[in-house]
Write a structure and sequence with these properties.
binds zinc ion, four-stranded parallel beta sheet, TIM Barrel, alpha/beta
């Protein structure tokens, strides 16, 4: 399944990899004849796809799975996510990143954008970089910026000065963003009510000077829209546009409350969108106007969001939920097809992070980020159409072998880069200790009220 411009699906195909790049894609017999000495990975009866791209997550929340269930977003942030996040240590970030990388690889995801909003002590964003790097996934770690919000429940320890936060961003970008580095760094002003206008302006200036993508939560909930109206008398996107923040390197996350006017501005300024359907449903945030965005020609990538609002990092679930959400919302089964949602998780996701030249499809010259999917399980078989099988039937354990940067990171469903059992044990220990330390452990033992039956 090439997802090239013609969307070719080659029945008996092969992909030739040379170093970290794809050298050729074509008929298996033909490639074998021309490259008899090549080392072979047998993918017969398998479906080979470009690795999926997860355009938004917060991997530190790996340690908070299931603690924020059934809460409205603002309560979820104020009562659980922020009080726990602000207790995170370097070890927590590293353990969470390793575990998040395992979840990604097992679902055939090869690129992850982490929105790293925890920076209350030095070294946390770097621990995420290190964890993703050690596990062998491709990533953009977008270093967070939080410069206000104490009046709305942001723990003071999370709030930094603009100068300090941007100096850290610059240092990390310069340290990690070499043309071929697998883990790169970007910037993530958290959300409009947690950053001030000068921070947005200075973030834009820094991005123009040193590069790195910018990602920001946008119009996720009614609360956020109301805060912008109260503080600025304008909608969030207008505030951002007003300070010259927006551009083709901005990835706006959620956008559930975006208006037709917002969509026109996004198209005009080439702002990209990260769609997080599972999280939007989980937190009851709303339904993003994705069909309107697609119609307007806005680039939309797909994402899991953090594990505390999903509660996993399985992109195959997001494919299915994403397509189904818009069908039921419009009572129109044609509105987002299997093919379109898969594009959002591959080539459109690559475009959303400015990497369409080397990610998102199986084409010569692109990075060898490849997932080999096995559909011989009771849920997926029998298969008529591989796109349908992947989007609507697969459960998330179908990835068998995964290559990133031309290296095998999983073979026969065993991750090769790290020891999976110790990563899981390490994450469990870190999760329990963090919940205790931050006073949210009781949320795991909430009462199950009987209905009397
Ligand atoms: Zn988020």
């Amino acid at each position: 399944m090439t997802i090239n411009r013609a969307r070719d699906i080659i029945e008996r195909g092969a992909v030739l990899v040379d170093g970290d790049r794809i050298a050729a894609v074509g008929e298996a017999g033909d490639l074998e004849r021309r490259h008899p000495g090549a080392q072979r990975i047998d993918a017969s009866s398998r479906t080979v796809i470009p690795g999926l791209i997860n355009t938004h997550t917060h991997l530190i929340q790996t340690l908070l799975k299931g603690l924020g269930d059934d809460k409205p977003l603002y309560a979820w942030i104020k009562e659980m996510t922020l009080p726990a996040s602000v207790q995170a240590t370097e070890e927590d970030c590293y353990a969470a990143a390793l575990h998040g990388a395992l979840e990604a690889i097992h679902s055939g995801t090869t690129t992850v954008v982490d929105f790293t909003y925890v920076n209350h002590r030095p070294g946390l964003s770097e621990a995420i970089v290190r964890g993703l790097g050690d596990a062998g996934v491709r990533a953009i770690v977008a270093r967070g910026l939080v410069t206000q919000g104490a009046d709305l429940g942001v723990p003071p320890a999370m709030i930094e000065t603009t100068d300090h936060a941007l100096a850290e961003c610059e240092r990390l970008i310069k340290a990690h963003n070499r043309p071929d580095s697998r883990v790169q760094v970007g910037m993530s002003p958290c959300i409009l009510w947690m950053v001030d206008e000068p921070t947005l302006r200075e973030t834009r200036r820094l991005a123009d000077r040193v590069g790195g993508i910018i990602t920001i939560h946008l119009s996720e909930t009614t609360f956020e829209v109301e805060q912008a109206l109260k503080r600025y008398g304008r909608r969030e996107l207008e505030v951002m546009d007003g300070v010259g923040f927006l551009g083709g390197d901005v990835l706006a996350v959620h956008c559930t409350k975006c208006t037709p006017r917002d969509i026109r501005v996004m198209k005009a300024l080439d702002v990209k969108v990260s769609h997080n359907p599972c999280s939007n449903m989980y937190l009851a945030s709303g339904i993003a106007p994705i069909p309107e965005m697609l119609l307007a020609g806005v680039t939309v990538g797909l994402a899991t969001d953090g594990p505390a609002s999903n509660n996993n990092q399985n992109m195959l679930h997001v494919l299915k939920f994403g397509a189904l959400l818009h069908k039921v919302a419009r009572e129109d089964a044609t509105v987002v097809t299997a093919e379109k949602i898969l594009e959002m998780a591959t080539i459109d996701g690559a475009r959303a992070i400015g990497r369409e030249h080397d990610l998102g499809s199986l084409e010569p010259g692109k990075k060898a980020d490849i997932a080999i999917m096995a559909f011989d399980n009771p849920y997926v078989a029998p298969v008529h159409n591989p796109v349908s099988a992947l989007v609507y039937a697969a459960l998330g354990n179908e990835a068998e072998t995964v290559l990133i940067d031309g290296k095998i990171v999983m073979r026969a469903r065993r991750v090769t880069t790290v020891d999976e059992v110790s990563v899981r044990e390490r994450a469990q220990a870190a999760a329990e200790a963090l919940a205790q330390r931050s006073g949210v452990a009781h949320l795991a033992r909430r009462r199950w009220r009987s209905t009397g039956y």
